[in-house]
Write a structure and sequence with these properties.
With 102 residues, the chain is an all-beta fold. The protein has a single domain, classed as Jelly Rolls (Sandwich). Helices cover 0% and strands 56% of the residues. A 5-stranded antiparallel β-sheet has the order 1-2-9-4-7, with no helix packed on it. A hairpin with a 3-residue loop joins strand 1 and strand 2. The two termini are 18 Å apart.
Length: 102
């Protein structure tokens, strides 16, 4: 029996490439061009490495905004995030390699 895929869902409208998945993690490479935006999505706890850095803005229901900037090569841990729309508000394409914990 195949296990259903887990978060993040729905997938961003940028390029989403699944690298690996098992019962404990899902590994994705996410590429977002300047101005590209995701549908509202929740993010589980994760470790992310910025292959190519940039700036994203999360917009939560109610209009609250949060900017998140990554430097190329930076690695960070992210706590779970409630549903938000993510937009590349920078001037260059951002590429992230994320390991989502299940």
């Amino acid at each position: 029996m195949k296990k259903k895929k887990s978060a993040p869902k729905p997938a961003p409208k940028g390029l989403l490439k699944e690298i690996f998945e098992n019962a404990k993690v899902r590994v994705l490479e996410i590429t977002m061009k300047p101005g590209s935006e995701s549908d509202a999505m929740e993010l589980p706890a994760r470790v992310t490495r910025a292959i190519k850095g940039g700036t994203l803005t999360r917009t939560y229901p109610g209009g609250k905004k949060e900017k998140v900037s990554f430097k190329s090569g930076e690695v960070r841990f992210g706590e779970p995030v409630p549903a938000a729309v993510v937009k590349n508000t920078g001037k260059s394409t951002i590429v992230l390699y994320s390991v989502f914990l299940k």
